[in-house]
Amino acid sequence: MLLEAFYSVLMVVLELPTGYFADVRGRKASLIVSTTGYGLALAFFMFGQSFFEFAAAMVLWAVSGAFRSGADNAFIYDTLLSLKREKEFPKISGRAGFLAMVAGAVASLVGGYFADIRITFPFVLTVAAAVLALIVVALFKEPPREKPIVQKGHVQKLAEVAKDALANRTFLYLVFYNAFLVPVAIVLYYLLQPLVVQLGLPLTVLGLLYAAIIFTAAVGMLIAPHIYYRINIGVQLLAIVVLACAATVSLALSKSVLGLGWLLLMALSVGTVTITISTAVNQITSSDKRATVLSLFNMISQGVFLSLFSVAIGRLIDLYSLRSVTLVAAVISLIGGSIFSLLLAREKTLSIQKKSRNQNSLILSNSE
Fold this sequence. Notes:
79% helix, mainly alpha, disordered C terminus
């Protein structure tokens, strides 16, 4: 958890400037840096033997994540915008997420098998995949933007974008809703291994579980576009947080292997909310500032709050039982998520779900 917190702090530091880099230099350039950092991080993980070597891997991992964060979504949305197909973003993004998750599920199955033979084998395979990914990124075509960002006064412009975004209530509600879903995500992804160890299950089962979780989250990404334009977003997000937290409580109270099945319901919720929130933030953001605003969103909700919750949950697990802390995580997510989903349900800005993008594009209009 300390290494995870270290990663999160680095993400907080890097998120905004790397998002701005993507807006100024291009999404493709940002994704090339990200993919290169990804391959190098994996190499450090593969050969690491000490805390400091793994910390170095986390630095590269954070560089990779920060340069990708915001740039990937902005790349997709602006490409669709140039084709006048931006309303298809939930569907396209959901399908892309589904394919990525399916690939991750297959990799989990393969990785679990090879990890039992030699723990470094999965890293060798993933470095090879990173090299292939870099080739794919090099073939991308940079999407056009509505207007290029200024080429001077970068610090001032960055501060203005951040200030305008933070002045928007809808943006803040989405940020804090996502932040309060972090404890459930920590249980789902970071505490899975200790849960499996506690039940005495082998690494191959851990690979199967990760595969099932990733595939179920992928299904959630496919479901999200079908409900996004039909149901008030606040109502959607309230239902999701209640479902996710009910599953987390059930997991904490379960004492058998079958109880791990609740992880799938948690994964379905997390997959659905990923596309829902991503679509909402994109729709309230203009093209020239999209990557910066998305990076600001990730910096707060998944950077600041992930580091805080990671350290707190890790410390509580050292002091108390894993199941007790899982219950605490569910309560925190339920309270915070419910409050901000209800606030979002009242926001007129999110009537953009039913209006055209031009009528409601953006965060920086100071309409609040």
